[in-house]
Known about the structure:
The chain is an alpha/beta fold. Helices cover 27% and strands 24% of the residues. It is built from ten helices and 19 strands. It has helices spanning 44-48, 57-63, 101-113, 130-140, 164-177, 260-268, 288-299, 320-328, 338-349, 356-363, and strands spanning 14-24, 29-31, 37-39, 72-77, 81-94, 120-124, 141-142, 147-151, 183-187, 190-193, 198-199, 208-209, 217-219, 223-225, 240-241, 249-253, 273-278, 303-308, 331-332. It has a nine-stranded mixed β-sheet, sandwiched between helices. Strand 4 (72-77) and strand 5 (81-94) form a beta hairpin. The chain is elongated.
Amino acid sequence: MQLLQFSNIMPVLNTKQVLVIYTGGTIGMTRNEQGAYCPSPNKFIEWMKNIPDMHVESLAREYCKEKIQTNTFAIPYENHTVIIYTIVEYNPLLDSSNMSQENWKRIANDIGENYEKYDGFVVLHGTDTLPYTASILSFMLENLDKTVIVTGAQIPIFEQRSDAKDNFLSSLIFAAIYQIPEVCVCFGNVLLRGNRTIKSSTDQLKAFSSPNYSLLGKVGIEVNLYMEHLLKPETRNNFHVNSDLNANVTVFKFHPAATPDMLETCLKSDIDGVILLSYGIGNIPTNTRIIKILEDALNRGIIIVNVTECVQGTVNSTYETGKICKDIGILPGFDITTEAALTKLIYVLGFKNLSLDEKKTMMMTNLRGEISKS
């Protein structure tokens, strides 16, 4: 993607402000003495100053509304627009494998505190847990009507061959130029709904996919946004960050070697919710002890959601082994991803003023486009 070069006689008609929250991840890592990639504080921002496509200092000095800072950058875009972006680097920088609910809260609150100051937001993040962060932000950022993009890279930006610049630049354009009322993932030249995204490859530059929902956009010779696939909120209430989370949840995966004792140990722990990863369209073993263990957990008020282990498809009760889940009160996850199911449960359980039945209803309701039906 080539950015425009402004001549001295071409006036800038408007500027767009983007806040970039740099949490860590491969995009800004360097190799340590052992040759392993690790976070490198204070290097990413300095490196950006040396990439012509990512910063034109003269534009930054001319069009920044406030006094230019060392973390402020400017790039020209079409229709005589200048994108001004400010990078805030977290300390410490995180490999995304170390991401926690407290980090989610920090990201969401930083967006909330700066919501009125910027036209859009980009979160730079490691790829391993990126779908979890994109999903939880989609729930925490209530009544969102500005663009939030989560992105990263498979290869650090410091390497000679890297996907980092294209991912970052495309994310900046979507965040600055378009008003997309949802949290998205921009990676490998495609724009995906955040809570529909999974990491599908460890070694391809197109590392993410959305198996149960259409692309929101695509970057090629032109930047295309598919408006018909975007969320269309029925009401425009005031934006709000809901950081009341309850992460007292777990995931249990059925497999042929799983025993009732394993399930009982999982459900005997002090938890409030469980995501069951089941076979196919929601099938589980019909072992009577397994069913009894699940029923006892449900009677104790634990919310259990049935999610298929398959990448694509939905949960339904076609088979006896799946219908039994519905009959005893396990909630169907429909076509939700594991990442979205887990983070949605964490979000829903955080509502202290709701009854158990109301929380169950929320789990089966399409809140942010995370499921295809309720």
